[in-house]
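for the writeup, i need someone to sanity check this before i put it in the appendix. the sequnce is what the collaborator sent (i think, or maybe the updated version? ugh). structure was predicted straight from it, no edits. if anything looks off just tell me and ill rerun, i have time this weekend
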Amino acid sequence: MNTTILRKSVLGIAGLAFAGGVFAGPVTETHPVDAKPVAVVQADKPSVDKSKLIPHGVQGKQSRIDVGDEQTKNVKAIIAATKKSGMDERAAVVAIATSLQESKLENLGHLGERNDFDSQGLFQQRPSSSWGTVEQITAPEYSTMAFLKGLKQVDGWKDMPLTEAAQTVQVSAYPDHYAQWEQQAADLVAKHWNS
């Protein structure tokens, strides 16, 4: 028999078998009686302990914004820097809530006349206040690490309300505004911590 005809015959039979399986439904597989059980591995990501994210409950009315691709990228950068610094999910919640308040998770450059002094980046850090150079504070990893370094220096930050911990690092003119972002920050950490 010609090899071309043989190949076409085999492929045709395989195609019929596949089509028969698609239209007839799945084939039931049988196992011998002495078969060993197969372990099932679940592919789901491990979940975050949500009690760690908001240990004191949220304070006041909560705000929420739609988060686009660039903001999601910045959330992931904040989480990666938090892990790199050896800090936990709660630190990421504080950092993300701070960035939500300061820049809506956008890595802002100098805004001209609308700029608050020389504040820039995700955390609106200022070169003139020794946060780093413009290039450094507009780099998400650097700016997050700088924020977290400040947070680590706050005695008892884990036992403080989020807004107090964030304010101690940021020294904002609006110290109570960080609290409104705690729930969305926690939701973002829960979604992206293990992604």
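Residues 107 and 121 are 4 Å apart (CA to CA). Confidence is low (pLDDT under 50) at residues 3-43.
thx in advance!!
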